[in-house]
Write a structure and sequence with these properties.
6-stranded parallel beta sheet; Rossmann fold; globular; 17 helices; Glycosyltransferase family 9 protein
């Protein structure tokens, strides 16, 4: 099938390259630009488009944030077949995005951290796979600091005639190079603006996922099997990089304290790769803890989140899932990124972080001692109780807020000082032993 060059105006075939040409001025557009040039991008003839490739090659949470843009595209062009080109980890999110008709997992060489072996055959196979897709155009979604050009070159080599992205760079890999949005823009909004500037109307800007019915059924069956009948807290202490991970032992103490103060079951969730890291944390959680690490797939995990009274998590995919479900969440939010780029926008939330001069660092590992997450478990507890009180529906009136006041009073009596050592666990009290059994050890959130 020969590439179609009639989807955008002023298209003329190039020698040795079937991509459309939009004119010299527009191909160099990297700033706000004249309105007339932007208007040319809105002349996309949707009636002639049958197959669209959407490229987003980052983590699971990044794919969740493409949802509003995909929803807008599908609403505007319901006849179009949408394929998502995603990383293997991110591809799992397609199960929660009903606007995606197909997903192509891809380990992109240009986003590799040195783990992929040199294999030109792998890259040729990617190009061949995309060529077989016979796509009319490609939307290349990126973060504020990523270049769309490597993906655009691959799409050009696969014969995709129209390639759309936002870029600060020059070059002809993109046939529509839209002005680069502000760096501080929320990633979901960045994705939306890309399609919006092509004339796609956006009715709803909210994050959204759809839970398959089998996921609901599996989640309810799992809760029933473990005797979870009341409210519960979902705790995800893991993240894809060390720089975004709050100290796991402190996190465990805070999670257990929250569960005990608010009378919640404590569901520990994570991927199969997190089982080893979870092993040392589980004994700290007491009888309320329920180990589900590696036990659920993504849709079932999302269904568990949907029923949670509160989610306690690092800045990771669970944050975006909870936001899409409007579930209250308490986030230990590292200084790796700007709040405005990734924070929840729908769910009630608290973001916990120390202000530091190095924020945002955009690092995978912290070289200076993780000062941005130097949080005492008591601080996490107080913030969680405050959020529970604010969103209380099934909690005893005033109970959570009174407990939050008690914790804050303890902080004041101790001069509000930051804990630099992990809290100790004091011996069991008689009351706790009667309630939970002889093995119970109540928490001390401050060192003796």
């Amino acid at each position: 099938m020969s590439p179609r060059n009639d989807l955008l105006p002023d298209v003329a075939p190039l020698a040795l390259d079937p991509r459309p040409r939009l004119g010299r001025d527009y191909s160099r557009l990297t700033g706000p630009g004249p309105a007339a040039l932007l208007e040319r991008a809105r002349l996309l003839d949707g009636s002639r488009v049958r197959r669209i490739l959407v490229v987003r090659l980052d983590n699971l949470g990044d794919i969740i944030l493409t949802g509003p843009a995909l929803r807008a595209l599908k609403a505007h062009l319901p006849h179009v077949h949408l394929t998502l080109l995603a990383s293997p980890g991110g591809a799992a999110a397609a199960a929660l995005l009903p606007w995606v008709d197909a997903v192509e997992p891809c380990r992109a060489l240009w986003q590799d951290l040195g783990r992929l072996a040199f294999d030109p055959a792998r890259e040729r196979e990617l190009i061949a796979t995309l060529r077989r897709g016979e796509y009319d155009l490609a939307f290349i979604l990126t973060s504020f600091r990523q270049s769309p050009h490597p993906a655009a070159v691959v799409c050009a080599m696969a014969g995709i005639p129209v390639r759309i992205g936002e870029s600060r760079e020059r070059g002809r890999a993109l046939t529509v190079a839209l002005p680069h949005a502000d760096d501080g823009l929320h990633q979901s909004e960045r994705n939306l603006q890309l399609v919006e500037r092509l004339g796609v109307p956006v009715v709803d800007r909210r994050l959204e996922i759809r839970l398959p019915r089998p996921a609901w059924t599996a989640a309810q069956a799992r809760l029933a099997a473990h005797g979870v009948a009341g409210d519960y807290l979902v705790w995800n202490p893991f993240a894809s990089c060390a720089a975004r991970t709050y100290d796991p032992l402190r996190h465990a103490l805070a999670a257990r304290a929250l569960a005990e103060y608010a009378d919640l079951r404590l569901l520990v969730c994570g991927a199969a790769r997190d089982r080893e890291r979870a092993r040392e944390l589980l004994p700290l959680l007491g009888p309320r803890g329920l180990d589900l690490v590696g036990e659920t797939d993504l849709p079932e995990f999302a269904a568990l989140l949907a029923g949670a009274r509160l989610v306690l998590t690092n800045n990771t995919a669970a944050l975006h899932l909870a936001d899409a479900l409007a579930v209250p969440q308490l986030v230990t939010y590292a200084g790796t990124d700007r709040d405005s780029q990734w924070m929840p926008r729908t769910s009630p939330h608290r973001l916990l972080r120390r202000p530091t001069a190095c924020t945002p660092c955009y690092r995978f590992a912290c070289p200076t001692g993780h000062e941005c997450l130097a949080l005492a478990p008591a601080e996490v507890l107080a913030a969680g109780l405050s959020l529970l009180a604010e969103t209380a529906v099934r909690v005893k009136p005033g109970a959570a807020s009174a407990r939050a006041r008690d914790v804050r009073a303890q902080q004041r009596r101790r001069g509000g000082r930051l804990l630099t050592d992990l809290p100790r666990v004091r011996p069991s009290s008689q009351r706790a032993r009667r309630r939970y059994g002889a093995g119970h050890t109540p928490l001390s959130l401050y060192p003796s």
